Amino acid sequence: MNDVLARLRELRSGDLPTHGGRTLAYVYDSGVSEVDEIAAAAHALASSANGLDPTAFPSLLRMENDLVARAAGLLGGTAATAGAITSGGTESCLLAVLAARDARPEVASPSVVLPETAHAAFHKATHLFGVRKIVVPVDPETFRAVPSAMAEAIDESTVLVVASAPSYAHGVVDPIPEIAAAAASAGVRMHVDACIGGWVLPYFAKLGAAVPRFDFGVPGVTSISVDLHKYAYCAKGVSVLLHADAELRRTHYFASAAWPGYTMLNPTLQSTRSGGPLAAAWAVVHHLGEEGYLRLAEITREAVTRIRSGVAAIDGLRVLGKPESTLIAFTAEGARFDLFTVADEMKVRGWYVQPQFAHRSSPMNLHLTVTAANRGSETEFLTDLAASVASAAAAGPVPVDPDVAAFVASLDPATLTGEQFRGLLAVAGLTGGAGLPERMAPINALLATASEPLRERLLTEFLGALYTP
Ligand SMILES: *Cc1c(COP(=O)(O)O)cnc(C)c1O
Questions:
Q1: What pLDDT is attached to residue 432?
Q2: Cis link prior to 202 (omega < 30° from 0)?
Q3: What is the largest CA-CA distance in the chain?
Q4: Nearest to 163 by CA among 211, 114, 125, 202
């Protein structure tokens, strides 16, 4: 047993660190040492239990109802608020779309109205569930949804309107009250995607921050998603989807008596559901409690405030919009250096920051997810960031061969064969088996010249190459 665990530890040592605040994407670290231990112990106690049948495992039922009630309490819910625990933010968003679609069977070609900053999970939902997406431009300065444009996009086919609190890409909160009013007056459901902000913005508000209204206190909001595996600092695999009432939830429930086995009854997309993530989340939420989360929000707010003003003060960097939460996106001012080289330089200095490609009014940028674990090392981070910018400036722009760029720009992903894709990947340096190159900037510079459909296809092929045993 020790052998295999030693091997696992060895494998894990090659990963990005999940603690200590050096990885500013994908991971959420409270910096509270016993949280991991509690989560692991609770996970072990319940991972053999199966949420498929809540009557067989009433502990899971009890913990789920308890967490839904906690989330509802935090997000302006009422006695009528109902919910479900899902495997993550994407599943919560998928179910919001599914419930909205199936509540309107009379609509022949249902559509969802999304601001262009809505999370990609909604694009996935429309893709999976055969719903049309109506994507509405956001304000190019603030990156917030424009209520009048959202309202205009609503028509008889609209089954759901979506807005974010905050958006992942820029960390800004959409004008929820205005958008929800437009949805309500059209008789359409309104989902607030608070996957990343739902467990931290209410605490920011309690600390006196001017947080825009986004919860069930806003008339017209019919559902809210909030991920416990983000700012509730729970182990991965847990999100909450809340509905203003149980009737709104019913249409994402699934039942099948049409086979000889047990009558399948699923509140979510999963059927067998491990009790592990749920129990781990329940234990962490109760351990940290109101006081714990308030304190963590305070620490996080200090860290994000320091980092935001520090980034803005670095010559050549500009923060996008006015981030109101725990996320910061910044771009390069002028073309004196390549921004994605800055990410590589940060990696050399032991930090992971996330590159985001340009999309519509949003220029290419680097994205930071700030957590409580970043408090205390802001100066070190900012010093290394300034040094990384200086190194990137010294290195100059990343050259993309104009012939290669022209060739890439001319490609149509719909007509390329698998073999041609693999050839392209090799040109791009994305071969999978050999692992990733140390420096991603040259690859990202080439990918940035590709159309979005081509980039999607290229990276899908790359994923397939990675997942080859
Ligand atoms: C993280 C996130 C999601 C998706 O959540 P996953 O847990 O990664 O599936 C959806 N919306 C927003 C705003 C998010 O930040």
A1: 60
A2: no
A3: 69
A4: 114
Beta bridge partners of 369: 327
Instruction: Report residue 260 as tokens.
Output: 């000889």
Place of tokens 């050999």: 434
Please say whether the structural domain 33-285 has been given the CATH code 3.30.750.80.
Answer: no
- How does strand 239-243 pair with strand 254-256? unpaired
For residue 437, pLDDT beyond 90: no
Cβ 30 vs Cβ 288: under 8 Å: yes
Beta-bridge mates of residue 319 = 330
> Does ligand 1 come within 6 angstroms of the Cβ of 227?
yes
The two beta strands, 158-164 and 189-193, are parallel
Tens-digit pLDDT profile for residues 83-136: 999 999 999 999 999 999 999 999 999 999 999 999 999 999 999 999 999 999
Q: List where CATH 3.40.640.10 sits in the chain.
A: 33-285
Mutate to test the pocket of ligand 1, among 27, 85, 119, 241 (most ligand atoms within 8 A of CB): 119
**Three-class secondary structure of residue 248 per DSSP:** helix
In terms of pTM, does the model score above 0.85?
A: yes
Encode pLDDT of 139-173 as tens digits. 999 999 999 999 999 999 999 999 999 999 999 99
Q: What is the Cα–Cα distance from 402 to 405, expressed in whole angstroms?
A: 5
Q: Partners of 328 in the beta sheet?
A: 368
How deeply is 1 buried, as exposed, middle or buried, from its count of CB atoms within 10 A (0-12, 13-18, 19+)? exposed
CA distance 250 to 254: 9
Nearest to 237 by CA among 78, 39, 103, 412: 39
Identify which of 28, 90, 356 to mutate to test ligand 1's pocket (most ligand atoms within 8 A of the CB).
Answer: 90
291: DSSP letter: H
Q: 168 CB under 6 A from ligand 1?
A: yes
Checking if the pLDDT of 209 tops 80, the result is: yes
The Cα 216–Cα 192 span in angstroms is: 9
